[in-house]
Amino acid sequence: MNWVDETIKRRKSVRAYAPRPLSSADRQGLQDLLAEEKNTPEIFAAPLSFHLLESRENGKDVPLGTYGVIRNAPAFIVISTANRAEAMEAIGYRFERIVLEATRMGLGTCWLAGTFRKEQFSERIQMGPEDILPIVCPVGYPSERKTLTEKVFRAVGKSDHRKAWEELFFSGTFGEPLAPEKAGDYAVPLEMLRLAPSAANRQPWRIVFSQGMFHFYREENPASKYGYDLQRLDVGIGACHFHLSALSHGLEGSFVKAAPGIRTPENMAYLFSWAAK
Ligand SMILES: Cc1cc2nc3c(=O)[nH]c(=O)nc-3n(C[C@H](O)[C@H](O)[C@H](O)COP(=O)(O)O)c2cc1C
User: What pTM, to 2 d.p., does this model score?
Assistant: First the structure.
């Protein structure tokens, strides 16, 4: 199995960390990942800023609160952006790529959109007047022992469960499920997308395969309390798994904005497509 599929299968949100700082090699590795993003598809190129904050500076603890959800994280990656609408898929795609690289390095991570003290994080980074800070992510060495909070979060969020293929992937229309056999070489990249993390494990991605194109939609969440479209961000995460897996299997193509002309249920919105070569 290639590193992409293997890492996707292995990654899980980590909320309890060993109480030790990042090694200098890992700190440098993370800083390199944040600074040198490569080969980003045009549609995910919205301007984003990534910042690495450490939980101890000059021998003192820095207040970076997570309401007790995250234990002992030695550092956090923080994402800020000015560009609200289109930035969402860009954050999802580009930050998940960093999460997978960090997982490959043996580090634990956990996307956080809700359970963090925004003012404590925003105080420590440079932000423009229009900027938002939608996501932070602890990073460090997974603790051997899970905390009770972590166990409760995983159980309540049904974190180990994923929706079945027939709820997510369709052929030609939203009425016709796509069987893995009909997906051909793309059965593995779609399966890797299915395993992606999402906010509250909602898995809002829906894909319609039609005439050599995979059209990506997101299911709306009318109850969203964030003031920005977290489900678009989730679809970006799914697109990252799909794309990296496709590339790792030598499948070529490109992300485009298309006009699929497919009858769409009311709570579904079209975002972008993968045109297979
Ligand atoms: C965009 C996004 C936001 C998330 N926000 C939070 C959060 O605020 N607090 C938290 O404990 N977990 C959060 N999570 C983690 C999800 O609950 C988790 O990814 C999901 O339950 C699947 O579990 P897994 O990541 O272990 O596969 C978030 C995940 C994503 C992708």
Answer: 0.97
